[in-house]
Design goal:
The chain is α/β, with parallel strands linked by helices. The protein has 8 helices and 10 strands. The chain has a domain of 139 residues: Crotonobetainyl-coa:carnitine coa-transferase, domain 1 (Rossmann fold).
């Protein structure tokens, strides 16, 4: 879903989105104290994503200079401790997928957490989430509410099979997409004639690249 946008033109001739970043930033921590600069300088992204597909997409935006504020639940995202290869309690995959971001812990089950998120969304340019369909509405941040908070906000929603249909409310992971899309069948060994998974999170990674590309198109089209 993409809202209408306002634009400005620098003296250099480059066109970019107008952005209002007046929200108080107390408590927002910079992951490592360093962010890349690039064509998305001045664009603020509110990152509500977890695990792989969303965080990779928003890290790409951060690579291009966007100010990405990652929202984590109390206790941190599930990938933060990870599975192996930790340093200072942070896993390698989490560090890789959340580079160039700042982090903020919010309990969105509490009104106080929702009020902080409202202020961030009101001053942001993009919000990205990868919840199952209906979760944003239950939190009180469905599309209509987001439009009320910030009519310029670009809303990117990543989910397994879309918001409607028989599988819409099911948990969907990379392996499931490989199976239902036919990708696993295409990888089958003809001697065995049994579907075989690609031994990497191919669907999550492709989805991330596509999401980042679409967000950039919405910002600069």
């Amino acid at each position: 879903m993409i809202s209408t946008s306002r634009w400005c033109r620098h003296e250099s001739g480059k066109t970019c989105r107008l952005s209002s970043h007046s929200v108080a930033e107390k408590g927002v921590q910079d992951n490592g104290g360093f962010r890349m600069s690039g064509p998305l300088d001045g664009v603020r992204v509110i990152d509500l994503t977890t695990i792989y597909s969303g965080p990779i997409a928003t890290s790409i935006l951060g690579d291009h200079g966007a100010d990405v504020v990652k929202i984590e639940a109390p206790g941190g995202e599930a990938m933060r401790p990870g599975f192996r290869h930790q340093r200072n309690g942070v896993s390698g995959p989490f560090a890789m997928m959340n580079r160039n971001k700042r982090s903020l812990v919010l309990d969105l089950s509490e009104d106080s957490g929702k009020r902080v998120l409202e202020r961030l969304l009101a001053g942001g340019d993009v919000v990205v989430e990868n919840f199952r369909p209906g979760v944003m509405e239950r939190l009180g941040f469905g599309w209509d509410r987001l439009q009320t908070l910030n009519s310029r906000l670009i809303y990117a929603s990543i989910n397994g099979v879309g918001p409607t249909g028989p599988y819409a409310n099911r948990r969907v992971y990379d392996a499931v997409i490989q199976a239902i899309s036919g990708m696993a069948s295409l990888q089958a060994d003809p001697k065995v004639e049994r579907p075989q998974m690609i031994n990497t999170l191919m669907c999550d990674k492709l989805t991330s690249i596509t999401a980042a590309q679409n967000i950039c198109s919405a910002l600069y089209a």
